[in-house]
Amino acid sequence: MQVAGKETSQKQWVELQLLCRGQTGKNRILQSLMAFYQKLQPQLQQQALPLVPDSVLNIPRIIDLVQLYEEVVNKGGAVIVSKNQLWPSIVASMKLKIAPTQLEQLYTTWLAAFEQHKVFGKSGAQRRSYETIATHAEIQATTSIRYTPLPMVTKRLKTHRQQLTDLGVLHRLVLALDSNLPDHLEWALNQLTVLSYGNPKDSDCDVLFAHTPGLLDALCRQLESVSEKKSIQLFAQYTSIAEEQEHLLRVLNILRNLAMVRENEKQLTQHTILRQWLFKTLSPVASQSSCDVADDAEVRDFAMDIILQIGPSYQPRLNVDEWTCILAPLIMERPRRSQALKSLDLISLCLQNPTKPQLQNHKLFSLVLQRTVELLSRNRQDSLLIEDDGQDNAGMYDEDDDDVGDNDGGDELDGDLLPYLSSTRPWDSALSPTGGERIGANMGMIFVSRRDGANDEAKKGDFEVRDLALLNLFYLSESDDNIRLWIARQPSAMEKIAMLVACGRAETARLAIGVLANLTQNPATKPFFLPIESRLLKVATADANLSHLVVSIMAEAYTKP
User: What SMART domains would the database entry show (predicted)?
Assistant: First the structure.
């Protein structure tokens, strides 16, 4: 009897499938119903489907569970149908000859649990009357603390769910920075310090300000609170200025690291408060008034590092007061070497832009140009700059000569590493911002040619400072004839440039030749080439790699009227 009943139920399910054939919606509901029975209620799948009389033919037939489910759901579900007494209308629409109460009982037995599963998830328990259900639109219309929108909820993409999780953690960091609670603030700074370094092998690990609303504003509020030294609860746990300064350095370290991510450049350059704070910190007046603050020089170094990353992209461009902050270290009596390097590097980056700044109109330009010319002969032992470590690092270049000593190619260098040294490339494309890597000794990387270090005096040269100073002269000499004449008139400028042509360091020599080539474009500078004629002639006859370049300059300077 059990086997016969099982065969009957299988035939009835097949008959029900035939009724749904050709109707995609009903077929999907039937498949979901059979899967639900197989997983959660297998006993119902083994039972025979109920037979009900038809009101038209007056013969019994199996009840169409899919049609019954659709009729009830379209009217709001079993609870709404029972509450509004809509079962008689369902009996009439299905053309059944059965009492409404019997149809309600059949629905409760066969389809009530399935309806709960589809509508309310896995839990089939009825929701209590005091539990309210918010729609997705209502959730998105609300705002959380600090008026940041809640993340979009989706069940389709696992990667999107992971992004939402990350966004929640970063939003918690923003709240912790503004909480005025020491423990939360310490946790947020520690987390951001680790996250700011990112992962060199995976750019998706970078923290982006565009994906974290309010993070940049919260970090800037930390800068303002320390700078103004307000007596607020945030620093109640600090007992000295040194601790406040340490807190400031941690925030600046986070901003400096995040500024190295290219995607953060737009948000940083458009943040007016951060821009004002950075240049206020670098202003000479602020430096003199804050001399009693510990590690104030380190704060200015961090500020300069941030400006180095985003300064060339500022819109609007740097104004007169901001340029004063950048040029000030170069006109000091004895500036620190790191300050001079960063100022020279930032000037060269800004001069590479298509819209070059009009530095010749600045009141400090003449003094900066004089100091730039002085740095062309900078040695590690002279007193022009103060060494940051207080040690003589001239010997650090000895190993570079040994590394390239086995190269039989003479002074030939890798054009991919130094695009501006390749004589086959046009000067305009090699020296443009899109022509490859930046020119000069940037990020502490110095490329020394084979001939360099041939004598003890050459080892003392500060190649990093000299190359950046020479690079600035190259970009300035591209501007107009007035600046070309201004450079040529500087005391000992032409002599120092000619000495760099004959220094034996190929990359420096080619850059110095580029400066001389630019100066020859102004006929008024030709008298200044006469004192260096003999030195250029020696290079033209002694160095095969530079002879064709030097000869072209001599032909331009000495033969044409």
Answer: ARID, BRIGHT
Instruction: Please give the Cα distance from 311 to 342 (Å, whole number).
Output: 12
Rounded Cα gap, residues 509 and 500, in angstroms: 6
Give the residue from 204, 302, 182 showing the smallest Cα distance to 250.
302
Question: 236 Cβ partners below 8 Å, 6+ apart?
Answer: 182
Chain centroid to Cα 503, Å, comes to: 40
> Whole-angstrom Cα distance, residue 519 to residue 513?
10
**Cβ atoms within 10 A of the Cβ of 286, count?**
16
Write out the H or E segment, with its range, that includes residue 378. Answer: none
The residues, any chain, with a CB within 8 Å of residue 554's CB and separated by 6 or more, are 533, 536, 537, 540
pLDDT tens readout for residues 455-496? 455 556 678 888 999 999 999 998 888 899 999 999 889 999
The pTM assigned to this predicted structure is 0.57
Architecture label for domain 2-120:
Orthogonal Bundle (1.10)
Q: What is the DSSP string of 40-72?
A: H-HHHHHSPPPEEEBTTT--EEE--HHHHHHHH
CA–CA separation, 36 and 127 (whole Å): 21
3-state DSSP assignment of residue 398: helix
| CB of 61 closer than 8 Å to CB of 52 | yes
The CATH code of domain 370-561 reads 1.25.10
Q: How far apart are CA 79 and CA 175, in angstroms?
A: 44
> What is residue 136's predicted lDDT score, i.e. its pLDDT?
56
Q: Which two tokens stand for residue 207?
A: 């923290």
- Residue identified by tokens 């000869």 is 551
Give the C-alpha distances (Å, rounded to integers) separating 175 from 234, 253, 415, 477.
14, 20, 50, 51
pLDDT in tens, 127-182: 444 445 555 555 555 544 444 554 554 444 444 444 444 456 778 888 889 888 88
351 within 8 A of 472, measured Cβ to Cβ: yes
Q: Copy the structure tokens of residue 76.
A: 């709001």
Instruction: Measure the CA angle with vertex 172, ends 171 and 174; round to 5°.
Output: 65
| C-alpha separations of 298 from 279, 322, 391 in Å | 15, 19, 19
Which tokens belong to 208? 């982006």
R_g (Cα) of the chain, nearest Å: 39
For residue 201, what are the contacts with CB-CB under 8 A and spacing of at least 6?
none
